[in-house]
Amino acid sequence: MPRTPTANRSRLLALAVLCAGTLMAILDETVVNVALPSIQQDLGFTQTGLAWVVNAYLIAFAGLLLLSGRLGDLLGRKRMFLTGLTVFTVASALCGLAWTPEVLVAARFVQGVGAAATSAVILGMIVTLFPEPKERAKAIGAFSFVQASGGSLGTLAGGLITEAVSWHWIFFVNVPIGIVALLLAARLLTPEAGLGFGRGADVPGAVLVTAALMVGVYTIVRVEAHGWGSAHTLGFGALALALLAAFVLRQARTANPLLPLRVFRSRAVTGANVILFLLVAAMFGFMFLTVLFLRQVLGFGARDTGFAMVPVALVIAVLSLSASAPLNTRFGQRRVLVAGLGTVAAGLALLGRVPVDATYALDLLPALLLLGAGFGVAMPALMALGMSGATTADAGLVSGLFNTVQQIGGALGLSTLAVLATERSRALTERGTETAHALAGGFHLAYWTAAAVVVSAAVLAALVLRPGRRTAAPARTRAVH
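== EmrB/QacA subfamily drug resistance transporter ==
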C-alpha cells in the first residue's frame, strides 16, 4: 500500500533524527582533539592524564555497543535510543561544566555510555523504517555520510568553536541539539515492544563481552604509550582475549545467548564485518595521520587543518547521498564495494608520495578527493550487505555488532599506524635525517600500510562476498520478516 506524503515526511524526519544521534556520537570522538591544549591549560591535566579525555569516551563507546544493540532488541529500539540520547545530552552538559580533570574524564565516560546506547540501534531502526530496496539504499547512504564525515566535521568544529568561544562549548553545543532530537524522536519514532528479557537476558555473557571489549580498547589506545611488546600491552591483551574466548564459549552453550553465533553463518554479515574492520582501520588512521602531517610537516594551524579535511566530507556527502543508491541498484553492492575500496587504496597510495614541500591543491587534494569518493560509495554498499543477513529479531544486535567492529577497527588501526609512523620517524632521525623528512617518512610508511590493508579488503570482498546482487529479494525478506 503506497504511503501518504505525510507518512513519507515523517519517515524522513525520523531518519534525520537518527542521523543527528549518530553525528553527535561520532563528532565527540574527534571534536576534543584540537581543544586538548586548551583543556590541559585550563584544568591542569598532566600529559598522561590528558589522553583520558579521549580514551574514556572510546572505551565506554566501543565496549558497550554490542550489549546496547542486544538490549535494544530485548527492550525496544526506540526506548534504547531515547535512553542513550538522554544520557549523552546530560553528560555533555556535565563535560562543559567540568571543574576538575577527574570530573571531565568521568563525564566523558558517561557520555560514551550514552553514545553506545544511541548508536547501537540506529542501523536496525533504519532497516525497519525503509523496507523497500531503493528507499533503504538512499537511507543507508545518508547514514553512511554522517558516519563517514563525522570525524572530519568534528576536527573542524572543535577548532572553530575553541578559537571563537572556548573549549566548554564543544560540549555545550550538544545540549540544545540533544533536547530537540529527543522531542522529535519521542514523537516520530515508532515504539517497539521488544522481545523481552526472557528471549535473551544473558547477564554473564553481557559482563564477559563488555569487559573483553573495554579491556581490549584500553589495551589498544595505550599502545602508543607502552609499545606493542611491553608487559602492559601483552598482559592486558591476553586478558582481553581470554575474556572474549570465555564469552564465545558461553554463547555456544547458553540457551539465550547475547550474541547468537548463528548470525555468523551469513556470509554477508561475517564478510562485511571483516571488510569493515579493515576499511575503518585504514580510514581512522588516515584521518589522524593527515591532521598530524598538515600540522607538523606543512605547518597548518588548527583552523586551516579543519578546513583542509572538508573536501573529504563533501565528496562523501555528494556520492553517498546521491550516487550510491543508483550505483548499487545498477551494478550490485559487491561490485560497487570493490571499486570503492580500490579507489580508497589509490588515494592512500598517493598520500604515501606527498613531499615535505607539498602544496595542498596539487599534492594533497587529489588524494583526499579519491579517498572521499571511494569511501562515499563503499560504505553504503558495505552497510547494506552487512545488514542484509539480519532478521527483524536480530537487527539491533547486528547493528550493534557493525558499530562495535567499526570502533575496534578504528582504535586498532589508529594505534597501529601511529606506532608505525613514530618508529619509522625515530629510525630516520637516528640516521641523521632532517626532522621534516623523518616525519614525512614515517607518515609515508603508515599510508602505504593503510593502502595495503584496503587492498586486502577489496580482495576479500571480491572472493568471499557472493556475486553482486541488485538488492536481491531474499536478502530483503530476511531483513523485514
